[in-house]
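Hey, can you fold this one?
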Amino acid sequence: MAENSSQYSTQFQENVKGVVVGEGNIIYNYFYASKTKIASEETAEAETVEALCCPYKGLFHFTPEDSEYFFGREAFVIELVELTKSRTFLPLLGASGSGKSSVVFAGLVPALQQTGHWKFTYFRPGGDPFYNLALALVPLYNEKLDRTDLLIQAKKLAPALQNGDLVLSDVLIQIQQYHFDRRVLVIADQFEELYTLCPELDIRQGFLNCLLESFSDAAKSITDVVLMATMRADFLGNALSYRPFADMLTDDVKLGAMNRDELSRVVTEPAKKLGVTFEEGLVDRILDDVESEPGNLPLLEFALTQLWDKRTGKQLTHDAYGEIGEVQGALTHYADECLEREQLKGKREEVRRIFVQLVRPGQGTEDTRRLATKADLGEENWQFVKQLADERLVVTSRNAEEQETVEVVHEALIRSWGELRQWMEADRSFRVWQERLRSLLRQWEEIGRSDDGLLRGVMLAQAEEWLEKRREDISPRERGFIEASAERRAREVREQQRRRRLTLGGLTGASLLFLGLAVGALWQWRQAELAQSDVLTRSAEQLFAGKQPFEASLEGLRALALRRRLKVSRTFRQVRVLYLAVAELHQINDLTDHEGEVKHVSWSPDGNTLASASGDNTVKLWDAESGELLHDLTDHEGGVYR
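Sure. Predicted structure:
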């Protein structure tokens, strides 16, 4: 690869206190992808052709420093500037890869600088939205803090906002007073992380309420602070599920696909500023390949960076375009090429293990990026992470706890790289289960590692099965959670056995002496069974509260079965928890081998086998306990409906 492209691999993501975007204007807490100094139009001619820096961004979004090379969204930026004059909340929705972040950072921010006095701050919600918001706000009312003091103040502000000890409007009023002659733009980029990285419903809704308190139509006191939130359009359903926030989204701003003229400016104008031309017909060829899909923008930018590296003098050629695999194949070609390089050749299994942990399987949405820590992937895999970072396939950084982190460089890689899609399809059931396990693990840690939060029933059995099959893909922290759950179950079994031995032991000895004692022992045993039924009921309630309706329903049924065997009437409490659990019950296993819609399912009389009929002309037989596919009946000439 040409030397000038190494700029992207020297530093992928630097956490800095601020990035200067104009005199007196700083985007605080701004994580940006690279510090690429692009030759100006005046100095380009003085440089050699080989030294020309690439004006395209590849898989990174444009920053304020890149604004002179940002083209195609001029009309949309003007619209956003106008909206900031009358709105305090601007939700910007668009498809993944439509350029939302670039529009804000390289379009809106520089434009606002030219229209008046503005201050800017930035955050991504991540897994701890209150802390990340606090980290963005603190520098606005105390600019003299060093990085350590900033972290300390943010750790104080975050719980105050989360617990309601301090309302956000008070913080914003303080910022207004501190910057009485300026307006403030708070940029909440990749807002869908609130749903992909923050699994706790109460935290999500609490954070949304925090924003509503200051930025809803009812909040009139905050007029000089504007919240700009960029979010993938396929997560709009998640946002609309919370009615108070849905009411704020009735007047959202949508970023659609570029037309051909706009795309042409994206392709040609950056190169033109550096005196580089396209071979005749090449621009039209590229535009034909891009089509009108907004999600193709990162693929286009990546292809242009690859094409730039292979330019002939100051011309971009058809031959080079074909060599890189054109727009649709450039990223896939590059990723496959990376796996064949010396440092990664023969390490495909290690690379697979890393990448499937960097993808969060979608549930009603496309797969998304997942931020993983070094502890998640293991020390032994981190050397491969660094090599993948050197190849620009992943981005490494540090989180608020100073843990090393890694994420896929762009979700376009998840959508477009065939190898990664195959890995995810093969591991999808495991990764869906693992994400659920991680959510339960976080809850267990939040309640002080109490036995009440440990796995039990079917969930524990599943965990032990996955641990046996995929131990190397389960982190030590997750393994500890599973093993602690198994140990709790073993303790309960031993205690039950001890109680039964003590109870039954009282029945031996002289018959006359122990006849009465036998009656007492029977009564004790009966009371012990009733107590066990109550324990199972409490367990069902705890599992339901922990959002495990399937396990709660099993525990509730066991409690009722004990009472029925003893011929004792069930309690209202037992009926209630079972009713609630069944009402919330969702599937726990997927039988996904059909290629068409499943029309009907049926159990065998002994309950050991499940048959599924499908529109794909097959009937499949499954082992009901393990979910294993037993047999395919494939000679049907049409769809099977019963």
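Residues 1-24, 31-47 have pLDDT under 50 and may be disordered. Let me know if you want another pass with a different chain boundary.
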